[in-house]
Amino acid sequence: MRLGAIATYPVKSCRRLEHGRATVHRWGLDGDRRWMVTDGTGRMLTQREEPRMTQIRPEIVGGALVLRAEGAGELRVPAQPADLEPITIWRTTVPLSRVGEEADVWLSAVLERKVRLYYLDDPTRRPINPDYSTPDDRVSLADGYPLLLANSASLAALNDWLAEESPNEGPLPMTRFRPNAVVDGAAPWAEDEWLGRRVRIGAVTFRVPKPCDRCVITTTDQETGARGREPLRTLARHRNVNQGLLFGVNLIPDGRGEIAVGDEVAVLD
């Protein structure tokens, strides 16, 4: 098995960045999900409610965040701490730095609604669900875990189902699932057997605490923002486990290191 692709998402729910290599921290990949958009009341905003977030293209340039969108030019946002405000992310409240009025105005114009931009200046601030982690584990602004790993053979199997059952909406690209790491050379759904074990990518080891339960974001075309019914309808037929529609597995790094496309992937324990 080999690592086939690496991606980060600097702003939660916005466009991806693809990489040949990446630094792994205990909280996730370098630069991954350090910024987050909220609505005008400070509530977390994602593609679940706002698929137009797919049209915001972030990039990290010289340590700063650069945002681009068609017709809006670009905005440069420094990565620096500022006044902290308590923001609720699912069931936890995390102090985040308010980026500022210029970023809020730019994003509000792109999304045609009042929004705010926040920065996680200290990525060691947010703990992981203690049911699946140790007290020292941390996560950035990802939904719950530092990395998401997907299996290219599982996507091929899903696309085979789509070809038979929903041909008008397939095949789907891996970008629909927004993984950080994609493994090539495994059997379809091999990742189901990795739960509770460790995997090694290059020289970095990761725990596999739980599978990933998929949401409506997977029905959103990551290039256009258009939304359909798949893959959730087909996952509901074939990958429904305790009302969770499963695709991919979450990872928690054991330490810091670097991973690169082409690295060997091995299952340990």
TrEMBL record:
<dbReference type="InterPro" id="IPR011037">
    <property type="entry name" value="Pyrv_Knase-like_insert_dom_sf"/>
</dbReference>
<protein>
    <submittedName>
        <fullName>MOSC domain-containing protein</fullName>
    </submittedName>
</protein>
<dbReference type="InterPro" id="IPR005302">
    <property type="entry name" value="MoCF_Sase_C"/>
</dbReference>
<dbReference type="InterPro" id="IPR005303">
    <property type="entry name" value="MOCOS_middle"/>
</dbReference>
<dbReference type="Pfam" id="PF03476">
    <property type="entry name" value="MOSC_N"/>
</dbReference>
<feature type="domain" description="MOSC">
    <location>
        <begin position="122"/>
        <end position="268"/>
    </location>
</feature>
<dbReference type="Pfam" id="PF03473">
    <property type="entry name" value="MOSC"/>
</dbReference>
